[in-house]
Amino acid sequence: MKKIKVSDLKPGMVFDQPVYIDPNNVLVQAKQEIAGKDIERLIKWGILEVETNGQLMQDGSASEASAASPAPAAVSGGAATATAAPARPATGRLDPELKAIVEEYETVRKSKRSFRNMLTECGETLEANIQALLDNKPFDNQAVIRVAGRLVEELSSKNLLLILFHGVRLSASWQTYHSMHAAAYGVALAQLLKYSKPRLQELMFAMILMDAGMFRLPNHIREKAGELSESERATVKTHPLLGYQLLLKNGKVKASLATVALQHHEAFDGTGYPQGLRSGQIEEISRIASICDCYCAMIEKRPWRRAMLPYDAMKTMLSVQMHRFDPRLLRLFLGRISIYPLGSLVQLSDNRIGMVISCKPDKPLRPLLRLMRDEHGLPFGGLEFVDLIRQTDIYITRALSPATAGIDLESEI
Predict the structure, then answer these.
(1) Which of 27, 117, 347, 385 could form a disulfide with 19 if both were Cys (CB 3.0 to 4.6 A apart)?
(2) In what order do the strands lie in the sheet containing 345-348?
(3) Span 341-412 CATH architecture
């Protein structure tokens, strides 16, 4: 197959053979126009080349392909619809790498109760010390360092622990849950940057404290169910500076770590707050925190809105909000978490529902799934898995919320 750079594609191009994202994923069928949204999708996913055995029929200036051509098969997520009902996958035929992921998932699943208890204990320690900051009482720096170390050890030994955050609530305070949730993703991203274990612990420490300033805001603003007024939004925007001052003055936290509280709402293009810093003016760990803070905030429920689907949150970050983030770090984050993020639920073309437990960066549309519901909406008797890289006649049709899927993640993960 010949490769074509995505930068060379134009809306309206038509090839006489299918154009592929990779050997298992069709972008468009033969004699089907490439649409602008197809090109945008490739760019968002960080795909640089497509491939085809075909020849260019239209250069992008022509209109529709010949009406006499047979209608292309329906496409979703890059794979063509099969004309016959797909066979049930042989989930036991996984390559060694994927088999190891399945085994790790089973280990993580069995440890969810102990992980939940550990998160609860860590959350209580964190809340107690943030309250000490607010009350100008002694801040137990060492206790929070131990929390950070404990979390890093767990996350480093079990990469799939990120999935459990979709089904765990460790505190009545959404701020406490959010800080620990975002910090877990921060560790996952920093690992790709080859951070040492001590540096990962510093990142974790800084991120679980980055929203300390939120606790200085009036409760009626933090928990308001409706839209904030202009003056209330201005008040919320003071929390990075408030947190930074609390950590430096009352907590005696190192300035290099307290800086994450100050900078985690700065934007790479200079449109953030409180200082309007841009690109290299923002510390790298703050740029990591910005990405993870934004993603986790969108997929978490708030008093004033519902949680966003992980798939929709990732799409938003890769389109509407892309300017806010360091592009290199955002690409790494996408490669680690994927367009269908770990722990998210998807419906397949045969109507089964699965949960994403792994995805290869070069095949973002073909994750490894733990099947949660059969084609009739019924749970499986045991653990069932499907590798969409191997099972090419099945594809993802849409992302689902747990409520839509009728799945209680906390009990079923």
Answers:
(1) 27
(2) 384-387, 368-373, 353-358, 345-348, 396-400
(3) Roll (2.30)
What one-character-per-residue DSSP string does 246-307 give?
IIIIIS---HHHHHHHHHTT--TTS--SSS---GGGS-HHHHHHHHHHHHHHHHS-BTTBPP
- Residue 230 one-letter amino acid: E
Quote the CA–CA distance of 382 and 372 in Å, as a whole number.
10
Is the pLDDT at 78 greater than 70? The verdict is no
Residue closest to 389 by CA, chosen among 373, 413, 365: 365
Average pLDDT over residues 214-239: 90
Greater pLDDT, 87 or 149: 149
**DSSP character string of 114-161:** HHHHHHHHHHHHHHHHHHHHHTT----HHHHHHHHHHHHHHHHH-TTH
> Can you tell me which residue has the tokens 């009739």?
376
What CATH code would you report for 2-61?
3.90.105
Q: At residue 67, does pLDDT exceed 70?
A: no
Centroid of chain to Cα 172: 23
pLDDT at 244 over 50: yes
